[in-house]
Write a structure and sequence with these properties.
Elements (H helix, E strand, L loop, with lengths): L1 H13 L3 H17 L4 H7 L1 H22 L4 H18 L1 H5 L1 H15 L10 H12 L4
InterPro entries: DUF6114
Keywords: Membrane, Transmembrane, Transmembrane helix
Organism: Streptomyces cinnabarinus
């Protein structure tokens, strides 16, 4: 039962830019976590304080959209990269650089993902295939 769910998750993960969406969402969550002011303070600060919460929230949302709607990954990843760079100014230097780097890396991974790419084979699978071709027992 566990192996069937594990293979199902691997197949689902292989059909989308999983790591890109996950890193973008984690970057947004990390930046939100570093924001310590309450909403009352943010509303008194004005647009600058509101943008400090809005940009990482949108990053988190775009990361989830990349995971669950990979057909629009190019738009989501470019927007996520711009939002990640915008957090440099609005959210404690992009969540003390960590959220900014996670968001930018995830956006780049999602942008570069190719949907029709053949799945990678592990070293053991390549070795077994080479042994089968050579006629040696596995």
């Amino acid at each position: 039962m566990l192996s069937m769910s594990r293979t199902g998750f691997r197949r689902w993960r292989g059909e989308r830019p999983f790591w890109g969406g996950l890193l973008l969402a984690l970057g947004g969550a990390e930046i939100l976590f570093t924001e310590k002011a309450s909403m009352k303070v943010v509303l008194h600060l004005g647009m600058q304080g509101l943008a400090g919460y809005l940009l990482p929230t949108l990053m988190l949302l775009l990361g989830l959209l990349i995971l669950f709607n990979p057909t629009q990954r190019l738009f989501y990843s470019i927007t996520g990269l711009l939002l990640s760079l915008g957090t440099w100014l609005t959210s404690n230097l992009g969540g003390f650089f960590l959220g900014l780097l996670l968001g930018a890396t995830g956006s780049c991974l999602a942008f570069g993902w190719l949907p029709d790419q053949e799945p990678r084979r592990g070293r053991r699978q390549r070795r077994r295939a080479a042994q089968r071709e050579a006629g040696e027992p596995a």
